[in-house]
Amino acid sequence: MTCLSPSERRLQKELMSLIKDPPPGVSVDADQVEQNLFLWTIHMEGASGTLYEGERFQLQFKFSNKYPFDSPEVTFTGSNIPVHPHIYSNGHICLSILTDDWSPALSVQSVCLSIVSMLSSCKEKHRPPDNAFYVKTCNKNPKKTKWWYHDDSV
């Protein structure tokens, strides 16, 4: 029996919870996670009755050994990156809980629910206004981006 680090114990617990009781339209690639507990692929379906209904997306979660005190690096990957005002064409997501508002109380499940909710509340599909510039100049790791969060309703 190997001794798991606190990060590994937490990730194992979250993985079991996600496999047993996933949010609607969300599933984890458990075989891939078995290979590397610190790299997860999550499959997500657009919620019915939304602009993304019928679409399938892939999210990648990368965890550091400081998780859950350090937020995971979360990006959309694959051939279908959602066209959304807070999602860049390279898969980076502008969502405060992934950086400034991260808390160890959050989980993979709550991040997935937030992303589903963000997609579901979208009124029209378009990229962020600075998409071309951002994609050309950003760091590969979205957590190194200094995001400016602004409320869309203003």
Automatic annotation (TrEMBL):
Keyword Transferase attached: yes
According to its UniProt record, the EC number is: 2.3.2.23, 2.3.2.25
**UniProt entry keywords in alphabetical sequence:** Transferase, Ubl conjugation pathway
Upper lineage ranks? Eukaryota, Metazoa, Ecdysozoa, Arthropoda, Hexapoda
Q: What InterPro entries does the annotation carry?
A: Ub_conjugating_enzyme, UBC, UBQ-conjugating_enzyme/RWD
Gene Ontology MF: a single term: ubiquitin conjugating enzyme activity
Which SMART domains is this protein grouped with?
A: UBCc
**UniProt organism field:** Rhynchophorus ferrugineus
* Domain spans labelled UBC core: 6-154
Superkingdom per UniProt: Eukaryota
What SUPFAM superfamilies does the entry give?
A: UBC-like
Spell out the reaction equation it catalyses.
S-ubiquitinyl-[E1 ubiquitin-activating enzyme]-L-cysteine + [E2 ubiquitin-conjugating enzyme]-L-cysteine = [E1 ubiquitin-activating enzyme]-L-cysteine + S-ubiquitinyl-[E2 ubiquitin-conjugating enzyme]-L-cysteine; S-ubiquitinyl-[E1 ubiquitin-activating enzyme]-L-cysteine + [acceptor protein]-N-terminal-amino acid = [E1 ubiquitin-activating enzyme]-L-cysteine + N-terminal-ubiquitinyl-[acceptor protein]
Q: Which CDD domains match?
A: UBCc_UBE2W
Q: Which GO terms describe its biological process?
A: protein ubiquitination
Q: What class of enzyme is it?
A: transferase
User: What's this protein's name?
Assistant: N-terminal E2 ubiquitin-conjugating enzyme
